[in-house]
From TrEMBL, chain A:
UniProt domain STAS: residue ranges: 1-104
InterPro entries (UniProt xref): MlaB-like_STAS, MlaB_ABC_Transporter, STAS_dom, STAS_dom_sf
Pfam family, one: STAS_2
Organism this protein belongs to: Herbaspirillum aquaticum
Name of this protein: Anti-anti-sigma factor
PANTHER family reported in the protein's UniProt record: BLR2341 PROTEIN (PTHR35849)
Superkingdom of origin organism: Bacteria
Length: 104, 734
């Protein structure tokens, strides 16, 4: 399963695995956005199993984050693979996906 | 994977550019240098370098860079574009081609020919050394850039309705390059990932700070996961020139907004960057700039961004201070319609396969309609038939490409061979917009090349000999293509010495290909040229004369269901004619029946159908309107069982291929059909007279007749018969 949901106490854990690129983006989008319809305030992404991430993937994560934040919820990345880490480094996006207060 | 499709794209693009570069070089050679063609060459080299750079094909980048450097000197008129340099550039183009080939085979890590590369690079360096000293124009370049930039900023300021503030015109402290990017929506679909540009930028300098701009992301529902909405604000420490940085984005420049601000640009330019951003993103950017202390306090105030910054700190919504939102350039350019799209060949093939199946399914529906005698149903199937035919034709034309794809290589080939052999040749090409199936065009290239080489090497005489023969010293070689009765005719014509019939015949007899006493027609004699190992060249040159070539030509053309013929006149020249079918996929056919078997004849080749006229038994010639016509009794040819007595009447289908006609004797005519050609299995590969099979509407298999072969068969038989007839008459005489 490329994407699974699990609920832990008050937070929702999304585990994504495989590629998160232009090739899977269309398929992953509704799956990721499904989180919007669930009640948990905290959403945590486990990207440790993601072996490839490109701009299309990053866009999806940014979209999910924006929608959650607009609804007064939070999104953070709990775990990431080296591939994800490299992209977050490159785009200097750690701050936006960490629990620390980020000006918005 | 993505890298592979991108790799293909790079390879294909590079090839196209190399062709353009070569064409421009040859044009310069013909018509003298012009600014346009020099620019075209420069652009081609430059673009190849850029796209190779994107994927870190360093070998090409470094090599092309040197070529580009020399071209740059030419462009600035510091180097003359003489014959030596022309040849050098053509060779460099060839070598880039080799590097591209290596990339295609995933072998870019190995240098295809290190020695050649070194030699070419040394020559390039030598040429570059001779360049004139940089003129005044070069020295003033940075100044001009700065001026243009300042005036741009001024225009921006005016457009925004702001009063021109002297403070905003002053240079800011900002010591880095600032890149403000908003990509074209299709960039991801085109196989480019903006992240790769960042990787590339990192090789040019240090990314001090970067801010992905997400305001372009539409509502969750409206967001297309495969479109690119992200923008980026990048602060880059680099010694590169503006040109180098612009080149990074060469391939996304269309429809993308790429703004590059030099270090210490006027403050107004940075203000523009901020104005363009949505509040949230602008606040983030201000935060970033603050942290990096890119502006002095005075400058911050002038920027009018102080409020913004506070907004960032307090997360309180504040309107962007400067009004006059500028329209996004993205929308403006959308209007330009795209004229071409690139499609994978496999998708096209799939479409044509499906259309083929549709044709078969349609035929079976029509059959049922006819059996039920339901007039409404029949009418409906007729309408569908009409549409299906149009779809079929449209689908097939998708595969059609102009023969120019092959022709365009010839100016260069002819030039090189003519140079090697020291002959002066003028090449003219006509009908290069003639279309034929893509797969045929590709497979036509090699045979044509052989023929042209042969024509130049054997056909065309050296200038001295030409003058002696009273011909102009400049020889003419012509390539022509045209449509003719459902096939494509490609001709290679030269005005050389022609072929020596006597010598060919001698050689053929010597090689045991012909009996010494055989009476052969001209066409038959010239056909020996295509025999394996046949060469009349007295001297073996580097190019031809080894007797390898023309037989390969014949084999290749045969494989395309085509035909090649030679027409020559000693002293006047030679014409080689290649005749090819238009396509290999679907044909309009004419169904005939022999015994219980159904055969299909390509409709384009059918001239008429008549009742079988009375004939002399045993003879394979009938008189049609007073003219003799050879015919083939299909039943005998394929050894089919004789039909039970019943209908004695037989029909003759007259077919034409090229200039030859023949009749086919059949039991009955079934009418027109659409035939999707399926190849015969290997088992039937050697069966002569059949070119393929098709499936009829009722599910039965019908064989497609190989008309060119059958027509030739009658010609051979005709001669045999004439001889036999003569013998018989002699025998009957006493």
């Amino acid at each position: 399963m490329p994407l699974t949901y699990s609920v832990q106490e008050d937070s929702l854990l999304l585990t994504v695995s495989g590629g998160l690129t232009i090739f899977q983006a269309a398929e992953r989008k509704p799956e990721l956005l499904h989180a919007l319809s669930l009640p948990q305030t905290e959403v945590v992404l486990d990207l440790a199993g993601v072996d490839e991430l490109d701009t299309a993937g990053i866009q999806l994560l940014l979209l999910l984050r924006r929608e959650l934040v607009n609804a007064g919820r939070r999104l953070e990345i709990g775990a990431c693979s080296p591939a994800v880490l490299a992209v977050l480094d490159l785009l200097q996006l750690h701050e936006r996906f960490s629990p620390a207060v980020e000006p918005a | 994977m993505k890298k592979d499709s991108a790799r293909d794209a790079v390879v294909q693009e590079a090839r196209e550019l190399l062709v353009a570069m070569e064409a421009a070089l040859l044009q310069i050679e013909m018509e003298g240098p012009s600014r346009d063609s020099i620019n075209a060459i420069f652009r081609a080299a430059h673009t190849i370098k850029g796209s190779a750079g994107l994927f870190a094909f360093d070998s090409i980048v470094q090599f092309t860079h040197q070529v580009e450097h020399v071209l740059d000197l030419v462009r600035e008129e510091r180097l003359p574009l003489n014959a030596h340099l022309m040849s050098l550039l053509l060779q460099c183009g060839d070598y880039i081609g080799e590097l591209v080939d290596a990339i295609e085979c995933n072998q870019e890590a190995e240098e295809p020919n290190a020695e050649r590369r070194a030699a070419l690079l040394a020559e390039l360096a030598e040429v570059a050394q001779t360049a004139a000293a940089p003129g005044e124009a070069i020295a003033s370049e940075p100044v001009r850039t700065a001026l243009r930039f300042a005036s741009d900023a001024l225009a921006d300021a005016n457009a925004g309705g702001m009063e021109v503030d002297a403070a905003l015109q002053a240079a800011a402290d900002y010591p880095y390059w600032h890149l403000s990017l908003q990509f074209n929506e299709n960039v991801l679909r085109d196989g480019l990932d903006p992240l790769s540009f960042l990787h590339y930028l990192r090789s040019l300098g240090r990314i001090v700070a970067i801010l992905p701009v997400e305001a372009g992301l539409p509502e969750a529902g409206a967001m297309d996961a495969e479109s690119c909405y992200l923008g980026m604000e990048i602060c880059l420490a680099s010694d590169s020139t503006r040109q180098t940085l612009e080149d990074v984005f060469e391939f996304v420049r269309d429809d993308s907004r790429i703004d590059i601000l030099a270090p210490q640009s006027p403050l107004s330019a940075y203000a523009t960057v901020l104005q363009r951003l949505a509040r949230e993103d602008a606040a983030r950017l201000v935060g970033q700039w603050r942290r990096l202390a890119l502006f002095s306090e005075v400058q911050w105030r002038s920027l009018g961004a102080a409020t913004l910054e506070e907004a960032a700190a307090e997360a309180v919504p504040v309107a962007v201070p400067v009004a006059g939102a500028r329209p996004r350039p993205l929308d403006e350019r959308r209007a330009q319609e795209q004229k071409f799209i690139k499609i994978e060949v496999s998708k096209l093939d799939q479409l044509i396969d499906l259309v083929g199946e549709l044709v078969i399914a349609g035929a079976s529906a029509r059959l049922i309609a006819r059996r039920r005698k339901d007039s409404q149903f029949e009418e409906a199937t007729q309408a569908i038939d009409g549409l299906m035919e149009q779809i079929r034709d449209a689908a097939l034309t998708l595969r059609m490409v102009q023969i120019n794809e092959v022709f365009q290589r010839f100016p260069r080939i002819v030039r090189d061979i003519a140079r090697d052999l020291d002959k002066d040749i003028e090449l003219t090409m006509t009908g290069s917009d003639t279309e034929l199936d893509k797969s045929m065009v590709e497979r036509l290239a090699d045979p044509l090349m052989h023929i042209v080489r042969n024509a130049i090497d054997h056909g065309i005489e050296p200038a001295a000999e030409r003058i002696a023969a009273g011909k102009p010293p400049k020889a003419s070689l012509r390539l022509n293509a045209m449509h003719e009765s459902g096939s494509v005719l490609v001709e290679v014509m030269d005005d050389g010495r022609g072929m020596d019939r006597v010598r060919i015949l001698e050689k053929a007899i010597a090689q045991g290909l012909a009996a010494p006493d055989a009476e052969l027609s001209d066409a038959e004699v010239y056909r020996f040229i295509f025999e394996p190992g046949f060469s009349t060249a007295a001297q073996v040159t580097e190019l031809s004369g080894r007797g390898v070539g023309m037989d390969v030509v014949k084999r290749n053309i045969d494989a395309l269901q085509g035909e090649v013929a030679i027409d020559t006149e000693p002293g006047r020249g030679t014409v080689v004619r290649i005749r090819l079918p238009l396509t290999l996929a679907i044909i309009s056919g004419f169904q005939v029946v022999v015994g219980n078997a159904v055969f299909v004849i390509p409709l384009d080749m059918v001239v008429e159908c008549i009742d079988m006229p009375p004939r002399q038994s045993g003879s394979h010639i009938v008189a049609v309107r007073g003219e003799p016509l050879p015919f083939v009794p299909l039943r005998e040819l394929f050894d089919l069982p004789a039909r039970e007595q019943g209908r004695a009447r037989k029909s003759l289908v007259i077919v034409q291929y090229g200039q030859l006609r023949a009749g086919l004797l059949v039991d009955g005519l079934l009418g027109e059909c659409q035939a999707v050609i399926k190849p015969l299995g290997r088992l039937f590969g050697k069966v002569k007279g059949l070119s393929g099979s098709t499936i009829l509407g009722d599910g039965r298999v019908a064989l497609i007749l190989d008309i060119p072969h059958l027509v030739q068969h009658t010609q051979q038989q005709e001669q045999g018969n004439t001889a036999a007839y003569a013998e018989r008459s002699v025998a009957a005489a006493p």
